[in-house]
Amino acid sequence: MTKTITETHGYNTRAVHAGRKPNELTGAVVEPIWQCSVYAQPYPGEFKYDYGRSMNPSYYPVEETLASLENGKHAAVVSSGVAAMTAVMSNLKSGDKIIMPTDVYGGTYRLFKQFFEKFGLEYAQIDLTDLDQVEKELKKHPQMLFLESPTNPLLTIYDLSALGELARKYGVLTVIDNTFASPYFQNPLDLGIDVVIHSASKYLGGHSDIVGGAIITNDKEYRDQMDFYRKAIGLHADPFTIFLLRRGIKTLPLRMERCEKNAFAMARYLESHPKVEKVLYPGLPSHPQHELAAKQMSGFSGMFSVFFKFTIEQSKKLISSFELITLAESLGAVETLVEHPATMTHQKIPAEVRKKHGLTDGLIRFSAGIEDSEDLIADIEKALAAVK
Ligand SMILES: Cc1ncc(COP(=O)(O)O)c(C=O)c1O
Fold first, then answer.
1. Alpha-carbon distance 171 to 194, whole Å?
2. What is the share, in percent, of the chain residues with pLDDT greater than 70?
């Protein structure tokens, strides 16, 4: 017998069981990998599945899990976080306007400004902590307010309830990239945001072994539109990725707790280090929006950034001197990762724009993994000593 999982079940239970049922044919406890591109039809046009670019049988169970973990009704899995953004942006048309923050993931900036702009989409990049400025832009009838919170890499927190309410007043769709917080620590739909997207390549997968994405909403029609774009522009996720994603999600709560604990330990250590100018971690009282983060998130996640008193060369020396912490672009993994936004994830942003937005040469971003914090701190201590 299989128990129906509802929103009344605890988060850990939902992470393991939501959307899961033993395979009807074999009783296998784990969903199989449906490695199939095409499906037989008993009669022309009569089918449950037709072609792998539209749908795969393994999408439904994991979509149910993702919807449950975001406290949403509907989800769509796609091939990457960028594919999730592409699907969302494809719903707009030439001349439509988007409000976005000054501080977003470099790939988002590249997709919006260097790709969609050429199809006639217009952007207002503004400070979303300034609600008066947001309202002024909303009065210009944009079609979308795009958010990231906490942002990448400056860990800025936006007031999701206030922004959701304001956008609703002007009939503007709100979309948030919730990758940094993960659905374990933040559920934006509960705060009045319309659409949540994730790079499943990060915390959801959790093991640096997949590239995937997801879109979650309470609006069935919107979800069906995402389905259409997945099929029409080829944003489908491959079956093996879906298998690994579902496996990774089972331990999401455990990993998130541990990543947060390690982020706290490293951030506290670095905060009092003489080579550090400032640590940005929403969990620390020194973070300018610590109280807002505590209000709208159930935890502070594993991401933090540090302004070192370093030149670009010293920054590069530090991040290449770690022995345990891995120098890599991604985040949200079991391994602690480090990167240098100015020369890695955000290098596509013009230098003057980077400077204007505070992405300095000494800024280094950490993604806490699940190792022992003592080992991580020892690694940081040794690497810092190597920078002269
Ligand atoms: C916050 C954030 N959103 C989206 C993405 C893009 O996701 P993907 O690499 O799965 O396309 C990234 C990738 O680093 C990211 O950091």
1. 11
2. 99
202 and 346 fall within a common domain: no
The rounded radius of gyration (Å) of the Cα atoms in the chain is 21
Specify whether 261 is located in the same domain as 241.
no
290 and 185 in a common domain: no
**Are 19 and 161 found together in one domain?**
yes
Q: Which residues pair with 383 in a beta bridge?
A: none
Closest among 243, 240, 188, 241 to 218, alpha carbons compared? 188
pLDDT digits (tens, 9 = 90+) for 4-38: 888 899 999 999 999 988 888 899 999 899 999 99
Q: 375 C-alpha to center of ligand 1: Å?
A: 28
Specify whether 150 is located in the same domain as 66: yes
With residue 279 as reference, give the H or E element that holds it: strand 276-280
User: What distance in Å separates the CA atoms of residue 300 and residue 238, rounded to the nearest whole number?
Assistant: 31
Task: Assess whether 202 and 316 both reside in one domain.
Answer: no
226 and 262, same domain (yes or no):
no
My answer on whether 243 and 270 are in the same domain is: no
Tell me the per-residue pLDDT of 206-222, one tens digit each, with 9 for 90 and over: 999 999 999 999 999 99
**What separation in Å is there between the alpha carbon of 10 and the centre of ligand 1?**
28
Distance CA 325, CA 367 (A): 9
**Model confidence, pTM:** 0.96
> Residue 2: which pLDDT band, with cuts at 50, 70 and 90?
low
- Asked whether residue 6 is assigned to any structural domain, the reply reads no
- Copy the structure tokens of residue 54: 């539209």
Sheet holding 326-327, edge to edge: 276-280, 303-308, 363-367, 337-339, 326-327
141 domain-assigned: yes
Active site residue 354: no
* Cα atoms in the 13 Å half-sphere on the side-chain side of 133: 11
Identify the domain containing residue 120 by its residue range: 11-249
Whether residue 314 lies inside any domain: the answer is: yes
Please list the helix, strand and coil fractions of the chain in percent, rounded to the nearest 5, in that order.
40, 15, 45
Residue 202 falls in the annotated catalytic set: yes
The mean per-residue pLDDT over the stretch 188-192 comes to 98
Whether 53 is a known active-site residue: answer yes
Cβ of residue 153 lying under 6 Å from some atom of ligand 1: no
Q: Say how many C-beta atoms besides its own lie within 10 A of residue 214's C-beta.
A: 30
Domain boundary among 221, 249, 277: 249
